[in-house]
Structures are given as structure tokens and as C-alpha cells.
Amino acid sequence: MNKPERYNRIHQQLQDLLAKSPNSFAAMATTSAVLFHKFPYYSWCGFYYLQNGELVVGPYQGPVACQILGKHKGVCWAAIDSGKSQLVQDVEKFPGHIACDSRTKSEVVIPLRNAEGIVVAVLDVDSHALNSFDDDDKAGLEKIVQLLEPLQL
Predict the structure, then answer these.
(1) Alpha-carbon distance 26 to 92, whole Å?
(2) How far apart are CA 22 and CA 153, in angstroms?
(3) What share of the chain is helix, strand, coil (3-state, %, to 5)?
């Protein structure tokens, strides 16, 4: 199965699972667990959400994460500030990268919007290998994140 087909299959699985609970944190926990266990090159998969102007760790799978990310620094804040997905092949080359896990080499971050279209969180996925993520990952994850957008944080 190629990567787009795999993401489509996971999208359908998550659509069915998320229909069972209107709770946003349950939805984020389920999403991060499914994704983390379906892709062997993911080393960390989870959410950071905005709370009182800070980007706070939410449900995730993987090693211990940074609890609060420095304001307007790093890949997650770049996605928040620009409102656009960030695909980073080599985190060492990303200005202001925040290293919660020094083994992380590449990253993809997808903004999550609320029902009003305001970015309220991000899905953050890391890998211990360089160049792990491509446009297929980005597109697949963007489609999956859309499943969470009707939920309120």
C-alpha cells in the first residue's frame, strides 16, 4: 500500500472512531495513538494547543515532550503564526528549532483550526531520521486534522 492510500485508510478509521466522542482531548489522544502506531518512522506524534497565549503539550505518543514551547520560536509556532503546515527535512537548519528530543531530525507540523477558522492547536510529528516526511505525509495529515476541526478546545 502506498503512502496516500495508507493515509486515506487511516482517515477512514479515525473518522469512524472520532464519531463516537465529541470530546476534543479524546479525539486528539486517539488520533496521536493511531498515527504513532501506524507509521514506524514516527518517533513522536501529538498535539500542542494554545492556552492563555502559550503553546502547551496535549495528548501525544512518544518520549517526554516539552511542556510549554517558547513563544514564537520553532516549527510549531511557525505553523501557528503562519497558519500553514510546516514540512522540515532537517530540523538543525530550521531557525529557532526547539529540541525537546535531541534525536529528532525531521518534523511536520499541521495547524488545527476551530469552527471559526482560528488556529488553536497543531499536530506535531517528529522522526529520528532526516527527510522522513514528504508532501504525501503533509497532505495526509492535513486531511486527518480536518476531522478534528469541528471540535472546540
Answers:
(1) 33
(2) 11
(3) 35, 25, 40
pLDDT-based confidence at residue 106 (cuts at 50, 70, 90): very high
Enter the DSSP assignment of 132: -
Q: In angstroms, what CA-CA distances link 110 with 1, 20, 24? A: 23, 23, 16
CA distance 31 to 15: 10
**Which of helix, strand or coil describes residue 130?**
coil
Which residue segments constitute the domains of the chain, with CATH numbers given? 3-146 (3.30.450.40)
pTM: 0.95
- Coil, helix or strand at residue 62: coil
